[in-house]
Amino acid sequence: MKTVFVGLGGVGGYYGGKAARAFEGGSEHRVVFLARGEHLRAITDKGLRVLAQDEEFLARPFLATDDPAEIGTADLVVFAVKGYDLRMAARTAAPLVGPETAVLPLLNGVNSPEILAGTLPPCRMLNGCVYISARIEGPGVVRQTGGSRKLFFGPVSGGREQYLPVEEMFRKAGIDAALVDDVNEAVWTKFIFMAPFAGVTSLFGRSFGEVLAGQDSQPMLEGMMREIQALAVLKGVSLPADIVELSLAKGVAFPPDTKSSMQLDCEKGRRTEIETFLGFVVREGERLGGDVHLTRGVYDALRMRADHPCGCVYEQEGQRP
């Protein structure tokens, strides 16, 4: 199986690194990195160094390149980029994709398959999500700092049996992967937790613990979760009846001083995934006639704030609600 990881940041670097180390040499599976810049040059020269919480290792892929023409058609393409880079990454990676190629996005949003389907040639579409905190520490170096590292994936439509070899490949690489029957439930379960926390922590400049304790922020957080729960119903996604309570409990389980990744990006003036987390909810909720006034308020406030504007560059022209 030829597996290409598109994007070698924290997520792609960790999971791609695990796969490349396990199948070094390419006799059983060929693991390829599609990367760029100094990160690519370092990987080409010395390999990818992965610093995980429980191990450190050097991964040498079968090939690392920025040119899809060197790779050819892949059996599996894993997208591990930020939401605002997905369309551009898909355009770049399109030559890798054929009718029998399985495409697996591992992003924070829930609508990655729709974005990819609008850009890529016809293929076998999957969706997935991961629970990991990881980042590029320097060119050719990725550090994993938290999370269970669990990976959930499954087909957008059709049966799961044909993807059992993908699950087997991941597990042979030491990746805690699960091929699930209902991937929508898996990705929305993560989304209903992440999106409200991203928005509220960024708006108030508060940690998880402070947001949960705030008389103004906690009701907003819970209300946004309920808006996403209702949106999931409108989109035909089945979630547990107590998903909001479960999501709030997840937040309580984090160290109280935890900050969301979007909050950190806002504080540092970096581009954020505001469209992935909040813009999507606003657009889909209003399109389907749902009540998303709390999410709309947070989205608009973050867009308008002058001191630390979030997501000041739109992912696509005309995308702002």
UniProtKB/TrEMBL annotation:
A UniProt-annotated Pfam family: ApbA
InterPro entries on file: 6-PGluconate_DH-like_C_sf, 6PGD_dom2, ApbA, KPA_reductase, KPR-Related, KPR_N, NAD(P)-bd_dom_sf
Superkingdom of this protein's organism: Bacteria
Pathway: Cofactor biosynthesis; (R)-pantothenate biosynthesis; (R)-pantoate from 3-methyl-2-oxobutanoate: step 2/2
Domain Ketopantoate reductase N-terminal as annotated: residue spans: 5-157
Protein name (record): 2-dehydropantoate 2-reductase
Record's function text: Catalyzes the NADPH-dependent reduction of ketopantoate into pantoic acid.
EC number: 1.1.1.169
Family: Belongs to the ketopantoate reductase family.
GO BP annotations, alphabetical order: pantothenate biosynthetic process
Keywords, sorted A to Z: NADP, Oxidoreductase, Pantothenate biosynthesis
Annotated catalysed reactions: (R)-pantoate + NADP(+) = 2-dehydropantoate + NADPH + H(+)
